Amino acid sequence: MNILVTGGAGYIGSHTCVELINSGHEIVVVDNFCNSRPEAVSRVKSIAGSDFPFYEMDVRDEEQLGRVMEEHRFDCVIHFAGLKSVGESVAKPIKYYDNNIGSTIALCKAMSKHGVARFVFSSSATVYSGGNVMPLTEDAALGCINPYGWTKLMCERILTDFAAAEDWSVALLRYFNPIGAHESGLIGEDPSDIPNNLLPYISQTAIGRLDKLHVFGDDYDTVDGTGVRDYIHVVDLAKGHVAAVGYCAEHTGVEAVNLGTGRGTSVLQLVAAFERMSGVKVAYDIAPRRAGDLAICYADPSRAQRIFGWSAEKSVDDMCADAWSWQRQNPMGYRE
Ligand code: NAD
Ligand code: UFG
Fold first, then answer.
1. Which of 13, 60, 291, 332 has the greatest number of beta carbons closer than 10 A?
2. What's the 19 CA to ligand 2 centre distance in angstroms?
3. For the chain, what is the radius of gyration of the CA atoms?
């Protein structure tokens, strides 16, 4: 298929571009580099061993989007482009609503005009409200506690309504906690600031860019008192998108689908796995709980298995080994 990938220079988008090309799809990538670098696109091309058209542009620019849609005939759009920092979304909510919802609406309009009827959307486990029992099925109660989460839930709503009106096929992919990197170590996660997320914080501590990890709370009702999450290898997640694209080609309507492993890992278990796979000791202290954090969050991934025929294959050890390989080969990310 011919696929438009928005945000393809970013962490998940870059890995997905590699898997789409490996699966025989033709891609066109757009990104405005507000949270990524051109080097990521070059590296995707070198891993995949093939070239593809790239446009540096804001997805909200309807005129430019229209030109891209006229130059190429697309069968499907995968929409990664979006802002993702929970803390920044609380401080700058309009920036988040404008970018995340504005880009989705601009795409819907352009797709409708150009007869593109398949949409794969980057949603998040953050759309599930607190108080659900684990594991989370797609039917669990929805609700958010920050503007970032609301942008995802609102986009899910917009796409659901649009799909019904236009007879589209839409996959709302609710990611759990993507970590790790491509096995080549050429592409990976490259936070532009001090990382908010656990694994980049661990690996930047291990490489010496940060002094020590702060473990946010050790008094939760979990295996060792620290928070439990469903970490998924970013390459497994990328393959989940390839499966979703295949599903959309054969069905119409909307499906919300969890992309997770169904397994929970605590903060200290992840630290231990990272130390084992890297051979480096990770200094940490115990800090107060972080506001808004759940004790435990993991997926029921059975719908993805049933309808996409996809399930995650890689272990937490694989995730740590690949994250470390990326960090070791690129201590400053793409900046060198
Ligand atoms: P990322 O920041 O690495 O990638 C997003 C990309 O989109 C970046 O390259 C950025 O420059 C680009 N972008 C943002 N706004 C744009 C715009 N208006 N026009 C053009 N390009 C734009 O983030 P990621 O981790 O790869 O996440 C991809 C998507 O998945 C995001 O929508 C994010 O909200 C969602 N998601 C991520 C996680 C996670 O833990 N990483 C979890 C759940 C959902
Ligand atoms: N943690 C630490 N120290 C850190 C960072 C995180 O102890 O420096 C802990 C957290 O308290 C949590 C676990 O590590 O228990 C994972 O935290 P992350 O920030 O890596 O991931 P979250 O599950 O909190 O957040 C992710 C996405 C968000 C999304 C949220 C809800 O990054 O975008 O899931 O689905 F909103």
1. 13
2. 26
3. 19
